[in-house]
Design goal:
Distance between the termini: 36 Å
Pfam families: Glyco_hydro_16
CATH class: Mainly Beta
Number of strands: 8
Shape: globular
Keywords: Glycosidase, Hydrolase
Number of helices: 1
Number of domains: 1
CATH architecture: Sandwich
Mean pLDDT: 91
Family: Belongs to the glycosyl hydrolase 16 family.
GO molecular function, one term: hydrolase activity, acting on glycosyl bonds
Protein name: Glycoside hydrolase family 16 protein
Strand content: 35-45%
Order of helices and strands: EEEEHEEEE
CATH topology: Jelly Rolls
Length: about 150
């Protein structure tokens, strides 16, 4: 992906569980990349557990990665995540930038989303127009069949 420059842009590449409306079990979100154009030298890789019964129990964490300002706007880069029963591992240009233990709530399939939003809590009056998020490709890999029926440890 090649990220758009400028304050107010908020591109993201993320994974989300697709819970049924009446499913009260926690949902999981993994943000492979969140980029706030206000801060051109930083990307955020974040994980969330959204408790649908008691929002006070929402939890998560993040990996903040410093990059040369503007470098993500000037060239294409690869962003990735490997989600296993043991670890969530984040990558930038095929190099690990952080990891966390996979939460026990992480039991549902994840869907892939890529979007360019505006704002993210920041003003958009100085956002360049047009702002474009360029995506060359997205790959998704299935788990090793020998491990496909594994469950996350308690």
């Amino acid at each position: 992906m090649k990220l758009p420059p400028g304050p107010g842009v908020w591109p993201a590449f993320w994974l989300n569980s697709n819970n049924k409306k009446d499913d009260k079990t926690p949902s999981v979100e993994i943000d492979v990349l969140e980029y706030y154009g206000q801060f051109p030298g930083v990307i955020h890789s974040v994980w969330h557990i959204w408790d649908k019964v008691d929002s006070a129990k929402n939890t998560g964490g993040e990996v903040v990665t410093n990059v040369p300002p503007g470098s993500l706007n000037d060239a294409f880069h690869t962003y990735g995540v490997d989600v296993s029963p043991e670890w969530i591992v984040f990558y930038l240009d095929r190099k690990e930038i952080g990891r966390t233990k996979t939460p026990p709530e992480h039991t549902k399939p994840l869907m892939i989303l890529v979007n360019l939003a505006l704002g993210g809590g920041w003003p958009i009056d100085k956002t360049p127009s047009p702002s474009e998020l360029l995506v060359d490709y997205i790959y998704a890999f299935a788990p090793d069949e020998a491990k496909a029926n594994m469950t996350c440890p308690d």
